Amino acid sequence: MMGYAQIMGSFTLDGSLINQAPFEEVKRKGVVGGQGGGGVVGVEKTKRESGLFGALGWGNIGESLGGLLGASEPSSIREMRGVASSKTVPLITTPQSILFVDLRLAPGESRSYTYSFTIPRGLPPSHKGRSMKVAYNLIIGTQRAGSTKEQQVKHVDVPFRVFGSVNSRGEILGHDLMSPYIILRDQARTASIDPSSSAKLSPTKKGVSSSKTEENTFSDFLEYVDNLLDRPRHNSSMGLLSPTGTMPGRSTIAEGPQTMKEAIDTAILRSNLTGAANQSANRFEIARSGRRVAVIMLARPSYRLGETMSAVIDFTDSRIPCYSIQISLETSEKVDPAIALRSNASIYRVTKKVHASFSENALFAQKLAFSPTIPPNATPEFITSGVSLEWKLRIEFITPRLTHEDGEETSWDDLLEEISSDDRGVILAAAQRLPAESFEVQVPIRVYGAVSGAPEAPDEQGLPV
User: Fold this and answer.
1) For the segment 370-393, what is each residue's pLDDT rounded down to a tens digit?
2) Lowest CB count within 10 Å: 143, 192, 269, 461, which one?
3) What pTM does this model have?
4) Which fold has domain 267-272+279-451?
């Protein structure tokens, strides 16, 4: 009889960590754009069946498109009761986009349809955390003609992954959890695919694009040669013109990034620049009591999912020795104190997730390197009004316990202690007890959602329904 497609995104919160009372009103907003939403309060099923659809025996079509759910109970009231008892809070809901109506298929015959919808920017990425879980689904529903049992709508939830959004400067966009995207107007684009026409058009499009690329490359080369010939020969101080340099007639203003991937690439390239306070974003000097312990150096402070980051701990010219070092790449969820039920330290211990760790003896080391790989299936950094995800490099230093003596400099116990001494020499052995203390630092890093090495136009993935 008909088939539809729609997108739904929602999140769930842990009741032991976050107060869920402020989100009860948000749940009611999702009734209008929900899977069975759109009913009118006070309109009962008996009235619907007495109309034109009821006379034709197609009363359930209205239900599938957002009609009544109860036998004699108003639909919206029934939905609001169900939504209130549900734990999921909506992020985005779209209306049901009709794919086909009155479709007849012969045995063995199949039809394909396209559905495309532009997801609003700023939505949090797909996440499976402790305090918050975010999921997005593409819902495909069909309804067959026949008896009352066969006319029930059958739907399939197809999960898909969403990455974080950035603006043109590479800054991560946030989202207000109290303001979901409830889209009432159908903005999706649907079409039927003809297998014969799609097979014929694909090679032609590829050939046209390749020919245009070759033509543009050849024209750029001719323009470069013409600029070399038009330059004055007597001025030899200008040097050789670079193909990538600014040519006459071209604008010197750099164009902004056109896509989100270009914005992320530009932000990563600029992340190593020194800030206004003349502080490097990838070099941190660690000290205790005004004395240097180590210097932490990062290849860059921003990465993508799937990339391998590089961190070096330099102990050269350190004034306080370091016995051991422990490094871990971890993520933690930060909850707004207005809705948090526990302290920040307690939430950090519960939501902390270690992705890679490294432990090494640093007694006589000059430098130590740590090269973890950011998991491709991890969640990139995101910001919302209630819960945010942060990436950090936590480094724990174990140093000797400092002793302060009057009139003397700070000292600490030696690694070797004297066992015996005579005229032949002194016998030293490793100290059995070594007073030590530890402290840790957290270096913030930024992880974007663009998968490293992903093609510009990935291959389409299908799921038979």
Assistant:
1) 999 999 999 999 999 999 999 999
2) 461
3) 0.71
4) Immunoglobulin-like (2.60.40)
